[in-house]
Amino acid sequence: MKTTGEVLISIPENFSFQEILTFLDRGFDDCLYHLEENKVTRLFSFNGELGLISISEKNEFLEVKVIKDKVTKEDLIEAVKFVEEWFDIHRDLTTFYQLLDKNHQLRSLSEQFNGSRLVGIPDLFEALCWAIIGQQINLKFAYQVKRSLVEEYGEKLEVENHIYYLFPRPEVVIEIDEEVLRKMKFSRQKITYIKIVCREFIDGKLNKKLLINLKNKQERYHRLVDIKGIGKWTANYVLMKSLRDMTCITYGDSGLNNAIKMLQNSKIKPTNEEIDTLFSEFKNWESYLNFYLWRTLE
DNA sequence: CCCCAGGGCCATA
DNA sequence: TATGGCCATGGG
After folding, report:
1. pTM for this structure?
2. CA distances to A25, A29, A87, A180, A197 from A34, in Å
3. Does residue A244 sit in helix, strand or coil?
């Protein structure tokens, strides 16, 4: 028997739920959440019990609703925690907007994407797999590959005629036959990379807590890059999206390159040095600038 | 057949 | 550490 519970979160300054929805609705049809008018819903594991988390805007508040068997107070706390992390709700963007406004090339972004938050991927294993899937292929195709994997191996729950999925756990992914993944359009290299990541998690050598507990960003970066299949792009992407490191730049990223080309009205992709120059005024906000530049591609 | 896509590996200098 | 060739897969 399903029950529901709700919590209201007050909406902070410089936060726009509409911008979150616009970002989530870029047209890639992500299989890990479901969009309806002014509402996002996704599956969540509450200590192993599946339930839905649904977010919508209600009179100056964000309403977080949980739907599962016997919703408890702890479930609601977990759900709110997840949403706050997913949407980066508690970050004060004032300084970032001041920096944007100071830069004549980037000034328009603070208005164009006002209240836009860096939507994250809280689960580290999911973030790593997703980054590996997305290496060097177009995003639309990457989302299709992810969908094949998730719909076949992720836990699922059907509610009101819609099936919601969770990203599969490492213990499940590592058992998948190589030929099955090949049919899902994983390249042989990516199969190798993802299985290595699975092994790290299963052996308890890597998880979010261990990574966070390292001394600083440099150590976290090297811990990731030392894993075969994780290069500078993947490490920066994951530190940005999952660990919410604010100083990441996705060097080598074709999207970032294209955004900067558009911005500077240039035909050739920027060098790392030119990227550093552009980002130099945004110390400790590199990840946000990176994210906002991506958004200009929509 | 070509080039591109939110790259990584490895050898070489 | 920086560059460049090669790998890999589907889209356009």
Report:
1. 0.97
2. 10, 9, 15, 26, 27
3. coil
Amino acid at A117: R
Q: Which of A234, A242, A258, A251 is nearest to A286 (CA)?
A: A251
Q: What is the distance in angstroms measured between the alpha-carbon CA of A167 and the sugar C1' of B10? A: 32
Q: For residues A195 and A72, give the distance between their C-alpha atoms in angstroms, rounded to a whole number.
A: 36
3-state secondary structure at position A185: coil
- CA A163, A166, A172: angle at the middle one, nearest 5? 120
What are A242-269's pLDDT values in tens digits?
999 999 999 999 999 999 999 999 888 8
Task: Give chain A residues 266-285 with Cβ within 7 A of strand B.
Answer: none
Residue/partner pairs of A212-220 with CB below 8 Å, 24 or more apart:
A212/A243, A217/A245, A217/A247, A220/A245
pLDDT reported for residue A267: 86
Q: Identify whether A253 is a catalytic site residue.
A: yes
Residue the block writes with tokens 């925690």:
A81
